[in-house]
Design goal:
The protein is mostly beta strands. It has one domain: Neuraminidase, CATH 2.120.10. Helices cover 6% and strands 45% of the residues. Strands 2-25-24-23 form a four-stranded antiparallel β-sheet, with no helix packed on it.
């Protein structure tokens, strides 16, 4: 009865239900590492022309890939990558694409990380000013994560190990430091990561003084903090939080960790959150390391990856479906049926309550 009364009180709200269909992406040569769960395919960005990401082959090497939507994969290896005496930690990672240009990063023979832009077969190396100044530490460098209308987003580590976001317009690197970052008593693991941009905004995440991760959107010089509902509920564990990874129009995507440590992807349209749990994820015997990560968005197409019950990584594409709006009276009846039958909701079906517009 209390549930029904509460629902009837929400007469200004509507329930938006969406069912996502997931297209798995498994690059040829991935999943070959003798059953190692650290192998697989990770989709990081998408456009109307292609999807990009990376995969690990049977030796543990990382290769970038492009996928054209017609089951054709093209392997991408930046010049100078995979030169570290056969170390499997070296390779090429693709971060984003606008259809004409691909951006990403690679590790050279010394372990340094360089960003790059790849257009029509030509590579341009990207090294943000101030990176590579940490007394030769190989974990320093520049990471390019996304591109929109020629503007490249990413982040770099300075000489102290701090992480700074940036936007590069082809001529100038503009540093971005979200308010509240860098306040953790000088810990070098703190900072700001910029993951994508649109015509009006840039998005990413930062760590505050407690080590918590918050998503953000920067629009017109003003930062807005984004914390997905259900995040930060893990008994104060600093590894919990919200990560914003992509933007297209009014929609942003990312992922968060819930109170059990599970990772859930999400879509946020500025009003409501839609949770993305790919079919087959969250099946690893209760391991909190399993879940779904939404990494990129272009129009109504979302890219990401999930870990299956064995720990293997599979990329995916999904299209934002048209929502169906359910009346409050029908919702009350539906919840009564679900309560009595104890029906379990499909992991790839999602309902989000939001103000009716």
């Amino acid at each position: 009865m209390r549930r029904l009364v509460s629902l009837l009180a929400l007469k200004s709200l509507t329930l938006t239900c969406t069912a996502f269909d997931y297209l798995p992406l498994n690059a040829p040569g991935s999943l070959d590492g003798g059953g190692s769960p650290s192998y697989g395919t990770w989709a990081t960005g998408t456009s109307t022309a292609q999807t990009v990401g990376y995969f690990k082959d049977g030796t543990g090497k990382t290769h970038g890939f492009t996928y054209d939507g017609a089951n054709t994969y093209v392997q991408v290896d930046a010049p100078g990558s995979r030169d570290g005496s056969g170390s499997p930690s070296y390779g090429t990672w693709l971060g984003g694409t606008d259809g004409a240009t691909i951006v990403g990063y690679y590790n050279d023979g010394t372990g340094k990380t360089h960003g790059f832009a790849y257009t029509q077969g030509a590579y341009s190396q990207l090294d943000a000013p101030g990176s590579f100044s940490g007394a030769g530490v190989p974990s320093y460098g520049t990471w390019a994560t996304g591109i929109y209308q020629g503007n490249i987003t990413g982040y770099y580590k300075d000489g102290t190990g701090k992480t700074h976001g940036f936007i590069y317009d082809g001529f100038t690197f503009t540093q971005m430091d979200a308010p509240g970052s860098f306040s953790g008593a000088g810990a070098p693991s703190y900072g700001t990561w910029v993951m994508g941009s649109s015509a009006q905004s840039s998005v990413g995440y930062y760590k505050d003084g407690t080590g918590k991760t918050h998503g953000f959107m920067l629009t017109g010089g003003s930062y807005s903090q984004i914390d997905a509902p259900g995040s930060f509920s893990g008994a104060g564990v600093p590894s919990y939080g919200t990560w914003i990874t992509g933007i297209s129009g009014n929609n942003v995507v990312g992922y968060y960790k819930d109170g059990t440590g599970k990772t859930h992807g999400f879509l946020f349209d500025g009003i409501s959150y839609s949770i993305l749990d790919a079919s087959g994820s969250l099946d690893g015997g209760g391991s909190p390391a399993y879940g779904t990560w939404a990494n990129g968005i272009s129009g109504d197409t979302i890219s990401g990856y999930y870990l299956d019950g064995t720990g293997k990584a599979h990329g995916f594409l999904t299209v934002i479906p048209e929502p169906s709006y359910v009346s409050i009276a029908y919702l009350a009846s539906l919840l009564a049926i679900l309560s009595s039958s104890r029906t379990r909701k499909r992991k790839d079906t999602l309902c989000a309550i939001a103000p009716k517009i």
